[in-house]
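Hypothesis: this fold can be encoded by more than one sequence.
Test: take the structure tokens below, design a sequence, compare later.
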């Protein structure tokens, strides 16, 4: 499994993790159905890891991803960009063949998800 977390994103995630119980917290990354293109990214903190999950470390951050999501996000880069309106995480997924304009929804050649109206 390859997940790239840029230096900017790593710094931001580590800052956010300072408010969490760092002994047990993981960064949860994956996908869920929905969005304009059929699949949406899920990014947050997770304290519970199950046998359905894969865990590893990326850029010094403990990460957990559902095993079913691994083929959909393998090779993805998570970045954090700052602009005049604030900042936010961006996701560059080489598996996405279609992405919506906001960049938070996508589909792959093997999984179209369940599109919603935007």
């Amino acid at each position: 499994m390859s997940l790239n977390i840029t230096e900017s994103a790593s710094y931001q995630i580590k800052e956010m993790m300072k408010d969490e119980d760092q002994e047990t917290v993981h960064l949860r990354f994956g996908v869920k159905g929905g969005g304009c293109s059929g699949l949406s990214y899920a990014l947050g903190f997770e304290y519970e890891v199950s046998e359905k999950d894969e865990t590893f470390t990326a850029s010094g951050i403990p990460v957990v991803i559902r095993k079913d999501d691994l083929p959909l996000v393998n090779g993805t880069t998570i970045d954090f960009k700052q602009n005049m309106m604030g900042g936010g995480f961006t996701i560059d997924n080489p598996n996405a063949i279609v992405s919506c304009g906001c960049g938070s929804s996508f589909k792959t050649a093997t999984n179209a998800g369940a599109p919603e109206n935007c």
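The chain has a mean pLDDT of 84. Helices lie at 7-17, 70-73.
Hypothesis status: open.
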